[in-house]
Amino acid sequence: MNKKGSMELSVNSIVILVIAIVMLGLILGFVKSRLNTLTPQLVTDEREAPIATPSDKLTVSRETVAVSGGEEVTLKVQVYAVRDIKNNSLDHSVYQPTITCMGNLVLPITVQLKNVAQGDVATYTMIIKVPGVSAGKYLCSLGFTFPLDASTTPAGPAITLSKDLEFDIS
Asked: Is the pTM above the cut of 0.85?
């Protein structure tokens, strides 16, 4: 019996096993780093905004937002549609919600608008990019504007809904 050949076979098996474990570790490390970059965009822990009604047309999941400068934060909003909201219209930009703070600080918002009929409620998940500004409390206003209503004579005025927010930036 050739004992040297069986020893080579077991050494080869051990080398292959070690290489496989190292590769598995590298793959898991890569996947974990990719998931960590996506984590801020996950909104599973953000509670729902109260239901918007004709008397309270714009509601938010929270009115005080604590965040570090340079980070993204998620906010859920409900809008009672006083007019049709059409995300494919030429006037799409006027439906874009805005957040303006004292000192003319504008916070960029990423949101996917939906087509909503007048009288219905739209729920939106906003991802807000907070710039790297000095720490402190900023009084801000979330605004949602409905354009002029050209279907009536005379044309109905633009309607702006707003809600005050406080950003506590650390």
From this structure: no
